[in-house]
């Protein structure tokens, strides 16, 4: 069952909406007529993004266990319901796995995996009851191909990937869609924040607005998954069809710790 959606007048919660991909998604949704709720941790940055599109603000640190439920409740209180969830908030960490502390590991898994799941758990039931809605999840090429020095981030995104596929099957014929956007290298502050700036010549980072356009298109046209850029889908195909070749190429040309 196709679940195409007109965004005009729809209430959309965008987590991590104060910067990067999230802020670009907010702009794209507002341009399509959606009423956007901007989530983030920084009040000033969230307010600045929300003000330019006439949106609302919900604050909360999704890296804290249990915070997702509070964010969902506040978002529901803004307009009484949420039609679309864009689970975009996330963070990376770069370095040897043996250097990762227990607290950092818990923070990554909570923010990148558990928070989206809890948000979906809170916001999905009313969508199913109304027979309309959409869950838009943001994955990563790291979740399909693996990245040296980012084992936990890659594992969390891989889990989110299979969650999206499973949930999509579960929600068939309910009127609620599920989409997954799989970006590669994006020109945002993500790499500096993870502790290792992106300094490679290839692949070149794509603008956040390009990813945002693909994500919004995925919602309106009920696309199960969208790769940005599209040619990246060749990497997991090579991994599946020629794993030995893939691992040799990854060791030779991939990122190193």
Describe the protein's architecture and organization.
This protein is of the alpha/beta class. It is 49% helix and 16% strand. It has ten helices and nine strands. The chain has a seven-stranded parallel sheet with strand order 3-2-1-4-5-6-9, sandwiched between helices. A two-stranded parallel sheet has the order 7-8. Helix 7 links the parallel strand 7 and strand 8. Helix 1 crosses helix 8, helix 4 packs parallel to helix 6 and helix 9 packs across helix 10. The longest helix has 29 residues. The protein starts with 10 loop residues before the first strand and ends with a helix. The mean pLDDT is 90.
Name the features.
single chain, 257 residues, alpha/beta, seven-stranded parallel sheet, two-stranded parallel ribbon, 10 helices, 9 strands, 16% strand, globular
């Amino acid at each position: 069952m196709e679940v195409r959606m007109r965004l005009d007048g729809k209430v959309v919660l965008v987590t991590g909406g104060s910067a990067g991909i999230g802020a670009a998604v907010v702009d794209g949704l507002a341009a399509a007529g959606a009423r956007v709720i901007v989530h983030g941790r920084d009040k000033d940055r969230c307010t600045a993004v929300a003000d330019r599109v006439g949106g609302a603000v919900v604050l909360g640190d999704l890296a804290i266990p249990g915070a997702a439920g509070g964010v969902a409740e506040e978002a529901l209180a803004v307009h009484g319901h949420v039609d679309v969830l864009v689970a975009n908030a996330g963070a990376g960490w770069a370095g040897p796995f043996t250097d990762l502390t227990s607290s950092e590991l818990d923070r990554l898994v909570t923010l990148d995996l558990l928070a989206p799941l809890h948000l979906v758990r809170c916001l999905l039931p009313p969508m199913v009851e109304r027979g309309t809605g959409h869950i838009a999840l943001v994955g990563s090429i790291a979740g399909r191909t693996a990245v040296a020095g980012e084992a936990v981030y890659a594992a969390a995104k891989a889990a989110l990937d299979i969650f999206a596929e499973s949930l999509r099957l579960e929600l068939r014929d309910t009127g609620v869609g599920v989409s997954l956007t799989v970006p590669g290298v994006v020109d945002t502050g993500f790499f500096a924040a993870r502790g290792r700036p992106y300094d490679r010549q290839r692949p070149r980072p794509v603008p956040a607005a390009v990813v945002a356009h693909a994500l919004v298109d995925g919602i309106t046209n009920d696309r199960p998954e969208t790769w940005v850029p599209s040619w990246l889908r060749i990497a997991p195909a090579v991994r599946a069809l020629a794993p030995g070749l893939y691992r040799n190429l990854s060791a030779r040309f991939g990122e190193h710790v």
